[in-house]
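Table S2 (text version). Query chain:
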Amino acid sequence: MPRQSKHSNELLEDLIIHVRAHSVLDDASEAGHRDRVLISNIWNSIAKVLKITDEDCKKAWKNLRDTFSKLRRENMHSISGQAAKKKSKWSFYQQLTFLEKYLQEKELHQ
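Corresponding structure-token output:
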């Protein structure tokens, strides 16, 4: 498959579903989180299902996760009450809310 700089929404939705099924990728408290062979095998299997390279898979996931984290921080640090209640209009925001528990743990340890 030729390299794509932008992935289709359907591909990104599928990526979210597959990564969510493998919490070890984001949950630092899981024993396998630091097992490089396990993590590599998971990324390879996800990439194979999605028919993209494992590097493209990881880059797309990092982009999704980083965007979610940035939008979440912006929502948390909003000054006005109205802005704080405002939900992100980014199409993947709700699908990625499962990451909040991992981000909260990470924020506590920083």
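Notes on Table S2: The radius of gyration is 15 Å. The helical segments are 9-20, 36-50, 54-76, 81-85, 100-108.
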